[in-house]
Amino acid sequence: MMQSANAQQRLPQQQQQLLLQQQQQQQQQQQQQQQQQLLQQAGYPTANASNLFGDVGAMGADGLYRTTSRNPARAQTLHATPQTPYNSGSAQSAYYSQSQLVQAQQHQLQQSLASLNQSQQQPFYYQQQYHQLPPVTYTLNYANNMYMSPSFGNFTANITQMPNHLAYYHPIMYQHPQQQLLSQSLNYAGFSLSSAGGLVGGGGAAILLDPLLQQQQHQQQQQQSLQSRKEYQEYFLQIAHQKYSAQDYVGAYNILNDLRNLHQNHLPTLLLLGCTCYSLNLFELSLSYNQQILNIDDKFAEAYSNMGTTYRAMAQNASPAAEGVDCSEMAERFYRTAISIRPKYWDASINLAGLLSSAGRWREAVQVYENIERLMEEEFDAGERLDLVAASENVQDGQYLKLLWEVGRRRSKRVEYERASGQVVAGEASGFTADRRRDLYYAKGNLLFAMGEVVEARRQYLKGLVAVGLDVSPIYAQSNSAVLPPPTVTPHQAMMALQTKSDRGDAIYHPTTSSILQTLAKIYQDALKPIQAVNFYYMSLGIHPTANTCNNLGILLAPQRLNESISWYEFGLTIDPAHVHIYTNLGSALKDRGQVPEGIACYQRAISLQPDFFIALANLANVYKDLGRVEDAIDLYRRALRVKPDFVEAFCNFVNSLLFICDWTDRGINLERIKEIVTQQLREGGKQIPKAVPTVLPFHTFTYSSLTAWMIREISRRNADRVLWNVETADWFPGFPQRPIKLLSAAVRPDPIATQQILNRSLQYPYPYPLPPPPDPHIRVGYLSSDFNNHPLAHLMQSVFGLHDRSKFRVYCYALSPTDGSPYRQKIEREADVFLDVSNWSIKDIVERIAGVDRIHILCNLNGYTKGGRNEIFAARPAPLHMAFMGFAGTMGAGKVDDKENGDEASGDDCAWDAVAEAHGVDNESTVSRDDAFFFDAVRETWIDYMVVDEIACPRQFVCGEPLEADETPRITTRLAERDVIRKVDDRSRVYTEGMIYMPHTYFVNDHRQGFREQEDPEVDRIVEGDDVASFLSASALSVFGSGGSGKADGALRYHRDEGYESEDELGDAERLRWRKEQIRRLKMRQEMFPWMREDTVVYANFNQLYKVDPDIFAAWMNIIKRVPNSILWLLRFPPAGEAHLRAKARELVGDEVAQRLVFTDVAPKHLHIHRGRIADVFLDTPECNAHTTAADILWSGTPIVTYPKYDFRMCSRVAASVAYATGTWGDDKSEDVQVDRTRVGQAKGAGLDLGVKRLDNPFLLGHHMVVNSYEEYEEQAVKLGQSLKWEWKEIASWRRARRKGGKEAGAPVPPPPPFPSSDKHQQQHPVVKTEDIYGTQLASGYQQEASQQQQHQLLLQQQHQQMVSGFWPTDSLLGYPTYHQAAVAASLAHANYPTPTSVIPQPPPPPPSIFYPSRANPTHIYTPSSSGLATRLRRRLFLTRDTVPLFDTARWVRNLEAGMEVAYKRWEEGMTRMRARNEAEVGVVQRVGIGAGVGVKGVSVSAATERRKRVTSRCFWVREEEE
């Protein structure tokens, strides 16, 4: 009926193809045997190992880039199409897509490749479990990634497989051949069943019988012949079925074809023939046999269903026979025909639902499922029907499950009774067994899940579990927590579940049941309900373990139980040795355990199995990035993004890596895309519970110039919200007590005992833990940090803890990382009153120690959003006051904001309850009370109360909630592209959620004076001090030396001005001595560092990590060295990969000649790094993200900086300005050239500095010469400082020769070498002297012998520095090879006796000393910048006053911090006193009215109440020093 004539003609051709297919099948079997042998040799299991992902119908896993099952939000996973029918044999669904089939071919166990390749095309007559590689997605592991430093965390490899709602059944037979008990074994070998019967009896003689008896005997023989032929036919049909089940379709076809020739109308034979031809992709032949069935019986529903499945396959495989035929439409028509014939036909209904689903007609598919469900359930009474159980969406899953179990128990009782009494059991007569019911609910739930109806999908899954009698209600009885439950099954027990069968019914211990459990687990995992998720995963593993489930469970366990997580990953790989997701997640777990090489090996294994697995590619890139292999990381990110262009996490890390090495290709485009990503994530993530954390983490906002002020604040706020959510969902956390007045609206009225407990706890509002007793007399201060080791924070703060006033404070340090044994750690441990290593403690234990044992008053966060921080400790509120400083240069974002345009309102609900309280007589009218209420009502969200800052780093107008007098009036320099105008009515453009404690100078403490003072150099002492140094030191009152002095030492005599000092005559003896030593040390270190460099070279430097450099500032740097021809720019290889990119950019900007003056060196150890800062003449800062610790290092060395606080709302771009303005003033030097006009301070140098800060009005601040306000001014100031450096001769001994003894000078001045005549406008001529003038007469006699040796030495020097200068330096430039170095160096070290100079440099040039400064004789002069230049005067002032300026006075800083803490705590105590009074008044109201009295805020004017709640008093306060 459905077959064309052409199809009939092709049938013999199709039959001829069978021989060829049979040969191919034999070859495949041979290949499979060879593969198994190879696998056995390699140590891999080959016997029935499960595939990559276990049950295809199961959900996948979550992970690192870990691997989890399906992400329901991914729309692209919904486009899958079924490839094989759904078989009733085991009722296990299978879900395939074209892309998944390709992936499956690559990743199945090798021993099953042959059968899997067949299974891609062949639907099986019996249930065949098929495993494929689902598509994947990714989630960020918040616990590993939130506290970011420049290093990257791991991505979780999630299996994003959709539930199996598109599966359908295979073609089916009308009846199964029955087992025949034959007396002998017959083997089919081409045997033809064409004979009608066989001989009866035996022997050779015939027996003659009575005719009647003969007739009866003949009839009996005919019956026996017919019975024998039927037995033979059934027997060979059984053999054919066995071959079909063994996938020997060619052998089955040969038998069935002979049987068909014997009995052409035998329906079971024709039905199995149709199935066999389907499995051989002979679709037209399959249709032909099914049509023959319908020609015999047009009501044969199975034939219609199988024809529908065949047309479905033809549509998917684009069969030539399908030309001109809408095969999908034909398939639907045949399915519906089969259902119309038999309404309760399970297979046709399931296949129809799968067909509709694959076409995107999901609602129709659901209707098909609902129709089957109705037909199944209507056989039961109304009180026993699961389809009639209804509940609103607000009903929790646990409550809904109880309703289902009540129905299930009633039904099970009746079924047990009917079965025991021999009655027909309802439902089973129609074929609706418990297995099929479970499968129906699973398939329906999967489809609803794909449609986004998650609540209803979960309920269908629960119905499936109830249908088979599996009780999961204990899971819902457990409270939600952040602490995972203990394991209920081990990997060993799960392995036993694979190897043995349970005595219980298969309906429960079945892969589909395990898949339902795994699906529910993944849903709860995505909903951030780890307790339910872990319990469901454990239960799934106990029933039927799969690699997917091991993967998903491992992801959940990794943050808390890393070792158990690794054990499940390893077990998953025993199930599926080629599971790329598990390899990826195992790699991340091993890396987190410190086994980085092993982790890398796992990533590489995953990539070798699947080269385009973007999760593993990105994770390996992260590791390479952290190991310094940035370029390799970038290549891997590119590969990952080629596979998945919308992989935003990898994209953001890719861009960060490019910036890290200064690869600015498409920089603007990339940063704009990041801005778009952040905007979308902030908008969409705000609708989730909890709010989603953006991909860009707070630390990375420092250098993403495209992000606005609002984005930067909200990124921190989202991280803060997640931290708070982590705490509030933890089972150990007692929770925040409710404000007493809000108890009026409680949902229920508790009993009297519970009422009193609630009221007592509300008196503690708003703190979750009992408050510590008042200081008596000590304020207990706790410091938390993961950096109490060899880390910049410890370098800066190592002395702070011991400098606290022990009469007022007691210091507790909580180390979040184990000791590294460094002297920094040892010093902190020694000087803290209490030091605890809590690196292995849980959050709960740390919080309870702080709140319950140590009773801390003020808790300080020294990490913030940096690596190793544990901000959940602060979110749990263990102390009354929390502060943050030093660790993170930005807001923590923990707090409410008033930004109605973006859906945030700071205190609308609290304001409404204020009105309710006042209506009941609670007095809250005073301004102070209202502002106190603002503080305390926000304690839950504001888990950081104060930041310790200064007004330069964090201007007051950017503090959220801070009362301002008027809206901002933008200046010309205000960068409104990054933010809106600040308005007094809201926080739209404000950034900081914390109140501020403003330090008087700078918030940036350091320990350079205590920790990094260099030792005296005996050789420098000999050169500078001479023979009478001891007598001089004893007479010069040098008590200030080494301990700090503010200028001239007491009793020190003034020096006469001489030819080399100009402005140095105002210095005292001690200062002259210190300064001369510093000059010699500087010359020495410059020569050691750059032996090829001329003395009169201006060294500009920047020692920041290169990720802080941006194109704008680099262009300014190139212009600076271009305008100062005798200059170089010194950068660090930090990282080395950045050098090539910056050199290329330099050539592009200023050409090869200037670009040659870009010099790179390696990063030095901390002590050497600090001391070699003196080599530079000017430090050029980076505006996007300043030098922080490095700025303090440089200023300690005396080198001036030039910094531009580019952003007024970004603290990270203002730290260097804060540090520079803490360097003091010019002191007694009131000369006009160092004075800055007061009006200029507030205008030309204004933006970011015109803050109304009184101390900036001082025109003699050194900071005025180091802080600028634009790129243009930056360039001009750097050039000005460089050009102010004019080199000249200085007599080394002049510092002591000018000292008078009894009215006489100590000695006559030694004449300097002759000045350099000018050779051109850019540089000075080299000195012209004789060999004897340079080296002395004694050395001249040996000149000829030394000249050859020196030439060899000079050649060696050139070779040593060839790599450093990269061949860029010309022989007549700053290097001076060979015309300059020998004579100029020697001349700069000239000796006392100077003959008349000659007019030419001696030839050959004389050998220089082995080092830059003299070592063979006693020098008299040095060649150094003039003291009259601004840069030198600035350097000298910075160096000589470094022991007394606020920047390096750690003890002074600690005293100011203590003053701030005392004020903050006093303010808190006063406010808490008023809060307790309010609590008591409101508790009295509740006692009168009653908890749950139904009183609410309905009808209260929130807007009016909010307006009254606006703060009047400042959230900030200023620490004033006593002398101020």
Briefly note the structural class of the backbone: mainly alpha
Report the biggest beta sheet as strand number plus sense, adding barrel if it closes. Answer: 8 strands, parallel
Summed over residues and divided by their number, the pLDDT gives a mean of: 76
Q: For the CA atoms, what is the radius of gyration?
A: 43 Å
Strand order, sheet with most strands: 7-6-5-8-9-10-11-21
**First CA to last CA: what distance?**
105 Å
- Percent helix: 40-55%
Please identify the oligomeric state.
single chain
Polypeptide structure, described:
With 1524 residues, the chain is mainly alpha-helical. Helices cover 46% and strands 6% of the residues. It has 55 helices and 21 strands. The longest helix is centred in the C-terminal third of the chain and has 40 residues, at 1450-1489.
Provide tags for this entry.
disordered N terminus, mainly alpha, 1524 residues, eight-stranded parallel sheet, five-stranded parallel sheet, 55 helices
Secondary structure layout:
Elements (H helix, E strand, L loop, with lengths): L4 H38 L18 E3 L2 E3 L29 H10 L5 H7 L16 E5 L1 H4 L9 E5 L51 H35 L3 H14 L4 H13 L3 H14 L4 H17 L9 H15 L4 H13 L3 H16 L19 H24 L13 H17 L3 H14 L5 H5 L13 H9 L11 H16 L3 H14 L3 H11 L4 H14 L4 H13 L3 H14 L4 H13 L3 H14 L4 H13 L6 H19 L23 H20 L23 H11 L16 E7 L6 H6 L11 E7 L7 H9 L2 E4 L5 H12 L3 E4 L10 H4 L5 E4 L23 H12 L7 H11 L8 E4 L45 E4 L9 H4 L6 H8 L3 H7 L33 H21 L8 E5 L8 H13 L3 E6 L5 H18 L2 E4 L4 H6 L6 E3 L8 H8 L4 E2 L12 H6 L17 H5 L28 H13 L3 E5 L2 H4 L2 E2 L2 E2 L25 H5 L1 H4 L2 H18 L1 H4 L15 H7 L33 E5 L4 H11 L9 H40 L12 H7 L8 E2 L6
Parallel strand pairs: 5-6, 5-8, 6-7, 8-9, 9-10, 10-11, 11-21, 12-13, 12-15, 13-14, 15-16
Antiparallel strand pairs: 1-2, 3-4, 17-20, 18-19
Helix pairs in contact: 5-6, 6-7, 7-8, 7-9, 8-9, 9-10, 9-11, 10-11, 11-12, 12-14, 13-15, 14-15, 15-18, 18-19, 19-20, 20-21, 21-22, 22-23, 23-24, 24-25, 25-26, 26-27, 34-55, 35-54, 37-39, 40-41, 40-46
